[in-house]
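Researcher: Please translate sequence to structure tokens.
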Amino acid sequence: MNRFDELKNLVMSLEGDFDKFYNKENQAAGTRVRKGMQDMKVLAQDIRSQVQNKKNEGK
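Model: Translation complete:
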């Protein structure tokens, strides 16, 4: 569950940058959003792999 908490925290940490980019048109915030989304992609893939490995251990 620790990885899930990491994912939730990452999503929550991006909330301000999403607001700044979409509502205030802050371009630097857009860069931070893109980086955060890439980090989420990597984290999600890692979680997916862990789940698959754990599932396969049970067979």
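Researcher: Any highlights?
Model: Residues 2-54 form one domain.
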